[in-house]
């Protein structure tokens, strides 16, 4: 049934972390492995979709049949999403985009000064990529992710409305859950329904999620 649902459909998906450079040897990153986004991209390609995957720095192979574009920072990811969103029927924002970047990356390696005990970095806000997409007139069906360490469902509902998403997938991270793992548990929330997808492999969850989105698209 999945094979029918995604035939002729174009999926744009972001995955992985972003790296925000401090200087030529240091960056601010996060613990996203990219596994959930890559699993969705793979399952969608298997289900017949044309998939473009915009990926932050991860150590994962490109799923078969998927067009992959590598980026490093949130600003680079944003630029690629702006190129591709209009052609997509569905945009899934699974990337863990850094909320802030270093205002001015140092051209040379920052040196440790022996008589200084602290230093500060000036951070500025990154663009909210998924919120930008939902603000466009020609926006596709937009699915966000919410990785939280507490109050998972209520934070997710808040993001659904604030970012004007069509659907959000909430998951608990920390305490051995979510990040860097092969399995996960998701709560899928839209204006009309809340579905609990019990703990299973990210590949199993991806098929279930694509069925839910596929129905919403048709
Ligand atoms: O980081 P946050 O929990 O707000 O992420 C919620 C959703 O927003 C995710 O789908 C994430 O990919 C997206 N996001 C984004 N651009 C940002 C921050 C988050 O697209 N700068």
Could you explain how this protein is built, in words?
- With 218 residues, the protein is an alpha/beta fold.
- It has a single domain, classed as Rossmann fold.
- Helix content is 28%, strand content 29%.
- The chain contains six helices and twelve strands.
- An eight-stranded mixed sheet has the order 5-4-1-6-9-10-11-12, with helices on both faces. Strands 2-3 form a two-stranded antiparallel sheet. Strands 7-8 form a two-stranded antiparallel sheet.
- A hairpin with a 2-residue loop joins strand 2 and strand 3 (26-28).
- Helix 2 crosses helix 6.
- The protein is globular and about 65 Å long.
- It starts with a helix and ends with a helix.
- 38% of the residues are buried.
- The mean pLDDT is 94.
- Bound molecules: cytidine-5'-monophosphate.
- It comes from Thiomicrorhabdus heinhorstiae.
- Pathway: Cofactor biosynthesis; coenzyme A biosynthesis; CoA from (R)-pantothenate: step 2/5; Cofactor biosynthesis; coenzyme A biosynthesis; CoA from (R)-pantothenate: step 3/5.
């Amino acid at each position: 049934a999945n094979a029918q649902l995604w035939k002729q459909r174009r999926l744009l998906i972001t995955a992985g972390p972003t790296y925000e450079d401090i200087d030529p040897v240091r960056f601010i990153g996060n613990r996203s492995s990219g596994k959930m986004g890559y699993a969705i991209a793979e399952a969608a390609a298997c289900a017949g979709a044309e998939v473009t995957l915009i990926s932050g720095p991860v150590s994962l192979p490109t799923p078969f049949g998927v067009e992959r574009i590598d980026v490093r920072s949130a600003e680079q990811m944003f630029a690629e999403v702006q190129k591709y969103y209009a052609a997509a029927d569905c945009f899934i924002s699974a990337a863990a985009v850094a909320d802030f970047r270093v205002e001015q990356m140092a051209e040379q390696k920052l040196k440790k000064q022996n008589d200084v005990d602290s230093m500060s970095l000036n951070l500025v806000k990154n663009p909210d990529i998924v919120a930008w997409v939902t603000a466009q007139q020609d926006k596709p069906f937009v699915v966000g992710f919410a990785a939280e360490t507490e109050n998972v469902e209520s934070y997710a509902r808040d993001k659904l409305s604030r970012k004007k998403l069509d659907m959000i997938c909430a998951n608990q991270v920390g305490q051995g859950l979510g990040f860097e793992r092969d399995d996960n548990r998701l709560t899928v929330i839209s204006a009309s329904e809340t579905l609990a997808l019990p703990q299973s492999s990210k590949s199993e969850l991806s098929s279930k999620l694509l069925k839910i989105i596929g129905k919403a698209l048709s």
